[in-house]
Write a structure and sequence with these properties.
The structure holds 2 protein chains of 2 kinds. By secondary structure, chain A is mostly helical. Chain A has 8 helices and no strands. Chain A has one domain. By secondary structure, chain B is an alpha+beta fold. Chain B has 3 helices and 3 strands; from the N terminus they run αββαβα. The longest helix of chain B has 17 residues, at about 5-20. The chains are: A mainly alpha, B alpha+beta. Chains A and B meet through α2, α4, α5, α6 and α7 of A and β1, α2 and β3 of B.
Chain lengths: ~160, ~110
């Protein structure tokens, strides 16, 4: 059975291939969905590792919902083990997701938006593939690394 | 050349070295805030042809090289990479979806 992140990637790919193309809306939804596929994979990893209970339990759901988008970006970017490539990919995907969900600009890159250039299907496909490959990278981490990643994303370090 | 221009020139050089100067149509480097409000660089690269677009592992490697160069300058802004190709015909969708509707702008 496919997981939610896998199905989100499949949904993003379906949006890319939709006929006839639904304008930029389909491409925006594709890259946003790709970001959420990665975010969902990280959330599920944290919940599985830290709640250690059934997926529908209150404990699992509490941890699943505990990751914050901005906090996750900062933690991953600064992490010696996970900044590259997971943190870099997360940062790129989050940036384009903010554009896709909230911006009226025609393109996520400001110079091209200023020229009224449009985001293409091929560009959107890069971000879907970036999310897919980053999920594969996370899945391939060994057990100890997964545990460190889960703790890093959830724990708040106080000094 | 001021410090920012030197940094931009170095980022351009790294892109050219990584992707091949003769395969690149245009490089755009802009220092600006990202959509989270953090200082960042946008590094846009237009390849001449889709066939020369770097795959995801090469994009990851290029991002790492750009970050390393910035870190060596004590510059911790993230370099967001945007890649496209001059011969991209995959299509953006066919309408400007933010054109105002007549009923929204009519004064009556």
């Amino acid at each position: 059975m496919a997981t939610l992140p896998e199905n989100l990637i499949a949904a993003a790919e379906a949006l890319l291939n939709f006929k006839p193309p639904p304008g930029s809306a389909g491409l925006r939804r594709a890259v946003s969905t790709a970001y959420y596929a990665l975010f969902s994979r990280l959330s599920a990893l944290c919940a599985s590792r830290l709640a250690r209970s059934e997926p529908m339990s209150d404990s699992f759901k509490a941890i699943y919902r505990a990751i914050e988008h901005g906090h996750a970006r900062k933690i991953l970017a600064a992490h010696a083990e996970f900044a590259e490539p997971v943190g870099d990919a997360f940062e790129r995907l989050q940036e384009v997701r903010y554009w896709a969900d909230y911006s009226l600009d025609t393109h996520p890159e400001s110079d091209r938006a200023a020229r009224r250039e449009r985001f293409s299907r091929a560009e959107a496909a890069q971000y879907v593939e970036l999310a897919r490959q980053t999920i594969v990278t996370i899945n391939a981490l060994n057990s100890d690394s997964k545990q460190r990643l889960a703790v890093a994303l959830i724990a708040r370090v106080r000094r | 050349m001021n410090k920012l221009d030197q940094t931009k020139a170095e980022l351009r050089q790294i892109v050219e070295d990584a992707l091949g100067r003769d395969r690149i149509d245009e490089i755009r480097v802009t220092a600006q805030e990202d959509r989270s409000g953090e200082p960042a660089y946008y590094v846009g690269v237009t390849m001449k042809a889709m066939k020369d677009m770097p795959d995801i592992p090469r994009q990851n490697e290029l991002t790492q090289r750009l970050k390393s160069a910035l870190t060596a300058r004590d510059d911790y802004r993230f370099p967001y990479l945007f890649l496209n190709a001059a011969d991209d015909e995959s299509g953006p969708g066919d309408a400007d979806e933010f054109e105002p509707l007549d009923e929204d702008i009519r004064g009556d």
